[in-house]
Design brief:
The protein is α/β, with parallel strands linked by helices and about 375 residues long. It has two domains: about 140 residues, NAD(P)-binding Rossmann-like Domain (Rossmann fold); about 190 residues, Rna Polymerase Sigma Factor, Chain: A (Orthogonal Bundle), CATH 1.10.1740.10. The chain is about 45% helix and about 15% strand. The strands form two sheets. The chain has a seven-stranded parallel beta sheet with strand order 4-3-2-1-5-6-7, with helices on both faces. A four-stranded mixed beta sheet has the order 9-8-10-11, covered by helices on one side. The longest helix is centred in the middle third of the chain and has 18 residues.
């Protein structure tokens, strides 16, 4: 048997990270988790360190139990950037949320690594810098989002020049059938109850506002080298068709499957091979019976429009938008602002942002920091 593929899981205590470790544990030795980087959930990270015995570990917080577990397995405490560029790491799975994934992604690509990217904000903030890092180091990106994995698979064997349209599907989130009046009074608990997917808190709220889908349009632009005008969004409540590509001759390819993130995770790790064991239940089209599609309503869900406009404008505007959204979602979950205030906070920040074209890394990070400051300072009383 070949030596296992050595995987660093950044964001190992989050939803995608936990599912990735499940894929690794079930892989029959094809993959090895050699590095684990988590956030503040040190209890779970301690359990993961004991189970997977990584060579490297990191956490944004620490406690005695975690320190003892790391010492017991002989792991080395390293930063996410150092882990991402370590010579004994083959693939880096970036499953962190927000801006935390940017520097490790750049480090991994400059070191020539394959990066399985599950962090939307990295490409939204700095897609041009990610592309430059790939050229500089010879690394590659493998999309993990179900939508971008679907597009990636549809493009295998195709010429990128033959793409006419990329069509991203959206479940519509928890409030797809709500009126604007109903949206005004929804609670964080309701927003976290996604009808199809089980995800982390921030991405679940982004799915409910359609900001998640707006960010995915920017991701698609960078991942597949197409203009924003070639990227569209369609609502698809069943989440069976994960996305589609229309080609120059009018042919359309789609990738279908049950809504389970373990398949795109496994595919990003195993590429170019498809493993013989499905990590999820198989698709039963007859049991589903029908698939439905509709246009998104950007009046009820303006975050989709805001994100696509930022993507078209470029510069530091997408970075400011992503940072403002992260703070606005935190404020909503904390009960400081309402659901409909999320896009209002973002728009207020973007009104004050002076975008810089073709920004450097420092300019991107400065835009991120300034947008966070502004988003946190918007008084709730002036948002109506």
């Amino acid at each position: 048997m070949e030596a296992p593929c050595r995987v660093a899981v950044l964001g190992c205590t989050g939803s995608i990270g936990r599912q990735a470790l499940d894929v690794i544990a079930r892989s029959g030795g094809r993959f090895e988790a050699v590095a684990l980087a988590g956030g503040s959930n040190t209890r779970l990270l301690t359990e993961q360190v004991v189970e997977f015995r990584p060579r490297y570990a990191w956490a944004s917080a620490s406690d005695d139990a975690l320190g003892e577990a790391v010492a017991a397995v002989g792991a080395v405490l390293e930063s996410p950037e150092a882990i991402a560029s370590a010579p004994d790491v083959d693939i880096v799975l970036v499953a962190t949320a927000g801006a935390a994934g940017l520097l490790p992604t750049l480090a991994a690509l400059r070191a020539g690594k394959a990066v399985a990217i599950a962090n939307k904000e990295v490409l939204v903030m700095a897609g041009h810098l990610v592309g430059a890092a790939m050229v500089e180091g010879g690394g590659e990106l493998r999309p993990v989002d179900s939508e971008h994995s679907a597009i990636w698979q549809c493009l295998w064997g195709e010429s990128p020049r033959s793409i006419r349209r990329i069509i991203l599907t959206a479940s519509g989130g928890a409030f797809r059938d709500f009126t604007r009046e109903q949206l005004a009074s929804v609670t964080p608990e309701q927003a976290l109850d996604h009808p199809t997917w089980k995800m982390g808190r921030k991405i679940t709220v982004d799915s409910a506002t359609l900001m998640n889908k707006g960010m995915e349009t920017i991701e698609a632009m960078w991942l597949f080298d197409v203009p924003m005008s070639a990227v569209e969004v369609v609502l698809h409540r069943e989440s069976i068709v994960h996305s589609l590509v229309e080609f120059s001759d009018g042919s359309v390819k789609a990738q279908l499957g049950v809504p389970d993130m373990r398949l795109p995770i496994q595919l990003a790790l195993s590429y170019p091979a498809r493993l013989p064991e499905p990590p999820m239940p198989l698709l039963d089209l007859a049991g589903i019976g029908a698939l439905h599609f509709a246009k998104p309503d950007t009046d009820r869900f303006p975050c989709l429009r805001i994100a696509m406009e930022a993507g078209r404008a470029g510069g530091t505007l997408p970075a400011a938008m992503a940072a403002a959204d992260e703070v606005a979602v935190e404020r909503f979950l904390a009960g400081e602002i309402g659901f409909l205030d999320i896009p209002r906070v973002i728009e207020r920040v973007l009104e004050r942002h002076r975008s810089i074209p073709d920004p450097t890394l420092d300019e991107v990070l400065n835009a991120d920091a300034e947008a966070r400051r502004l988003a946190a300072a918007v008084p709730p009383g002036v948002l109506a």
